[in-house]
Amino acid sequence: MALTGVQIFKLLPKTNCKKCGFPTCLAFAMKLAQGGIDLSACPDVSEEAKKTLGEASAPPIRTFALGAGDSAVKMGGETVLFRHDKKFINPCALAVNLKDSLGDDGLAKMAADVAGSEIDRVGQKLRVDAISIEYASGDSAKYAAAVKLVADKAPHAALILNCRDAAAAGAAAKAVSERKPLMYCATDETAETMAAIAKENGLPLAACADGLEALSALTEKIKGLGVEDIVLDSGAKTAREIIENNTQIRRAALRKSFKPLGYPIINFVLRDDPVLEASVAAVAIAKYASIVVVSSIEKWKNLVLFTLRQNLYTDPQVPMQVEQKVYDINEPTADSPLMITTNFSLTYFIVSGEIENSKVPSRLAVMDCEGLSVLTAWAAGKFTAAKIAAFIKESGIEAQVSNKELIIPGQVAILSGALEDKLEGWKITVGPREANAIPTFLKGR
Q: What are the C-alpha distances in Å from 35 to residues 54, 58, 89, 251?
């Protein structure tokens, strides 16, 4: 049962040393009770208190990493059912399933596709996170070789050993144990053997059962065998089953503090039709899956799933924003045009991208409007003539340009007159209303 802030405070050193970043131990205790900080932030807490508080302050869904090193994907740790209540914490891992019967060339190509899947979207690096290697050949030696090949060709991808044969899984696990792969999976019949392999190699283990009652009994069994890091597969395959089972698992863990279901979820959404597969994968991402496994990673599908995942796992109370400053694009000179926009990340990356595409050397002044888009910031009184004028003067850009001309977004053309009054000696030009018109606008000047 979760402890209150006062109960946690009684177990802390009470030195008010501020090493945790809070002014008092009571403030730290209150934040810890809310799940807003980790116990490790207090360097002086006793071992006895760690044991008590570690259990009480642990998130209702166990947290651990899929994979090893810098590319490891953190999963679990979620505390809410709906992102508007707080936010979703750890973005789900996207994985592609490869059969070991694909052959060395086929496996190498797919591994290369995973390695090259990374894209940059609004300042974040998004990619396929993991590769599931399926034991389809029935040959243990061939499976171990396939796993090793994929591991070598995709060094930054997490691995999932999709193998229910204990002997084959054990051999493959030893070959790549340093990569900390997920073993998939243990059933009621194979729990002892699979748990022994996972425990010996320090690996997470997936529990597979049909239905939540059987699944919760299986996780208790696996935990009793000494494996702490568990991933849940309830057998859900259709979109409806995924919604129903994943939602019940999350509710049981968060609302009922039901420990046997307090683990990350994996959903295999393999389909022959890529559009249908993308649709079901989207359902799994939206409904609490920590790992979503697909059968193919076409670029269009990646972009759809990356974008959905990114949008779901941003903080709805804190808009994505970039630093306020004047950005040089395409190596501008003193007579290059100067444009202005707000610091909403999506606005910045779209506008800067269009300027780059134009090949015209330019400068882009990005003004801090608390992460709001142009029209929203204008309506909220944060992108006004007075504030724009103050930003331009304080930025020091006047000393870097020979032609004092400022190009404002076409959607706020109404500001042009007031800006000319506020920025003496400057010419105010109204730019395009839409970003996709920027290249033509700049080239035609």
A: 12, 8, 12, 17
Return d(Cα 35, Cα 61) in angstroms, integer.
Answer: 12
Q: What residues form DSSP beta bridges with 121?
A: 124
**What is the rounded CA–CA span in Å between residue 168 and residue 164?**
8
Report which residue type is found at 389: A
Mark whether 253 and 136 lie in a shared domain. yes
Contact 122, 345 (CB under 8 A): yes
Question: Is residue 339 one of the residues assigned to a domain?
Answer: yes
**Closest of 72, 80, 79, 77 to residue 62, by C-alpha:** 77
Q: Which of 197, 196, 222, 198 is nearest to 208 (CA)?
A: 222
Tell me whether residue 241 is in a domain: yes
Integer Cα distance of 362 and 29 in angstroms: 51
AA identity, residue 300: W
> Does 308 lie in the same domain as 194?
yes
Residue 87's contacts (CB-CB under 8 Å, 6 or more residues apart) are 80, 313, 314, 315, 316, 317
Which three-class secondary structure state does DSSP give residue 329? strand
112 and 186 fall within a common domain = yes
> Do the Cβ atoms of 245 and 253 come closer than 8 Å?
no
Q: How would you write 103-153 as a 3-class SS string? A: CHHHHHHHHHHHHCCCEEECCEEECCCEEEEECCCCCHHHHHHHHHHHHHH
Range of the domain at 24: 5-57
Is the full-model pTM beyond 0.90? no
pLDDT tens digits, one per residue of 215-265: 999 999 999 999 999 999 999 999 999 999 999 999 999 999 899 999 999
